[in-house]
Design a protein that fits this description.
Layout lengths: L1 H7 L5 H4 L1 H8 L3 H25 L5 H22 L3 H16 L2 H9 L4 H33 L1 H22 L25 H33 L11 H9 L1 H16 L1 H19 L7 H16 L2 H10 L6 H29 L6 H16 L1 H11 L1
């Protein structure tokens, strides 16, 4: 499942990796560029409630395979037909819809066959592999675009989901489904899934987590490219922005797994608020560091990215653990829908702040844009106090 997840994400970071190039070729404003980057999550949001909830009622492997071909269709369409804002939005939508039918349905396929601590650890490894998939997408798409143009990158993005569909349907056992007595509610009735207050807290936490994470991910390569232009010896830099971004992504899987191990020992709530607060504060400072030596910028982004992922697996494992087995698909559907709604808004918010604060050649504008996605995490200790005070 982890290998399939990595393959299915081959097109996930293709656009954001090549965002500076698309801005130049298509004359995109930062707001328009952010809209395209975020629109992958519009597709995700439309698909995930239906496709993830459907895994409670039919074999999740079939859902997964169908979603893989949505991703492949979107990437192939981008390769052949993308020419500007509207066409890019359309094909990003399909790539996102495919992700909506693979990420959480794949997690359900995995956790249906595990219980207890092994289920939590498997969730951590699976969630961590999101970072590996993103890193591979950045590194390979960046390299292919350098030597073969951006359409070559999207050919790679087309092939990965097809491989993932074959892996899951050949090697994974059938997913668990509801009995006829349990399938009495309508497919999109999420009231039973939201009955537990604990589940609702995990959903809210995931929204805050994704707002910062996907705002960062969508603009990371563009920010590194800007920072490189401020370096006095930019011609001697061995690593390009895409390569640096791929390396930064690698801090995520390790921190996701370690965060979950800490949570198993000291409690999920402490781990979630610790990492959420630190990463939020880090984001509020990060954009202002663009003019520092690139090695320093890289280390700071590497640390910040790891802090953002420190609570990722813990949040997801908590949501799964709070769900009755027969409602797991529904819980993951609403959890993912709300979380990726925030992921849709974040890149657009970032781009708008960047435009109105001075543009992508202004360090102050980058600083304020990063603050716009980190503020909710930075305020999470206040939210924790409020939950304890009034609950």
């Amino acid at each position: 499942m982890c290998l399939a997840e990595i393959c299915s994400m081959s097109g996930f970071s293709a656009y954001t990796t090549l965002l500076p190039q698309f801005q130049r070729e298509w004359s995109l404003t930062n707001s328009a560029a952010g809209l395209i980057g975020g629109f992958v999550f519009a597709g995700y949001m439309c698909a995930v409630p239906i496709l993830t909830a459907l895994t409670d009622r039919c074999d999740s492997r079939k859902v997964y395979a169908g979603a893989c071909f949505l991703s492949a269709f979107g990437a192939l369409g981008f390769t052949l037909f993308a020419q500007g804002l509207m066409s890019a939005l359309l094909f990003q939508f399909f790539i996102g819809a495919g992700l909506g039918g693979t990420y959480m349905p794949g997690l359900k396929t995995l956790t249906d066959h595990l219980q207890g601590a092994s289920q939590a650890r498997a969730t951590a490894f699976y969630a961590g592999c999101f970072g590996f998939g993103s890193s591979l997408s950045i590194a390979v798409c960046g390299a292919l675009a350098t030597y073969g143009g951006w359409r070559a990158a999207f050919i790679f993005a087309t092939l990965g989901p097809v491989v993932a569909a074959v892996l899951v349907n050949v090697y994974m056992p059938k997913g668990q489904t509801q009995s006829s007595e349990q399938s009495v509610t309508s497919l999109l009735n999420f009231t039973p899934a939201l009955a537990q207050p604990t589940t609702r807290y995990y959903i809210l936490g995931y929204a805050v987590h994704n707002f910062e994470l996907f705002g960062h991910r969508s603009w990371m390569v563009a920010f590194l490219a800007f920072s490189l232009t401020l370096q006095p010896s930019v011609s001697t830099i061995a690593w390009g922005a895409a390569s640096l971004g791929a390396l930064i992504n690698l801090s995520g899987p390790l921190m996701s797994i370690l965060g979950n191990e800490f949570a198993l020992r000291i409690g999920r709530s402490k781990v979630i608020y610790f990492f959420m607060a630190l990463s939020g504060l880090g984001a509020c400072c990060l954009g202002f560091t663009a003019g520092l030596p690139i090695a320093v910028v890289f280390v700071l982004m590497f640390i910040h990215y790891g802090l953002m992922l420190g609570d990722s697996a813990t949040l997801t494992a908590g949501a799964i653990g709070s769900a009755p087995t027969h409602l797991r698909g529904s819980v993951l559907a609403i959890y993912s829908f709300v979380g990726f709604s925030a992921a849709l808004v974040a890149p657009i918010t970032f781009g708008l702040v960047l435009d109105y604060a001075g543009g992508n050649q202004s360090t102050q504008a980058w600083g304020l844009a990063f603050m716009s996605i980190g503020v909710f995490g930075a305020l999470s200790p206040l939210a924790r106090w409020g939950f304890k005070r009034f609950s």
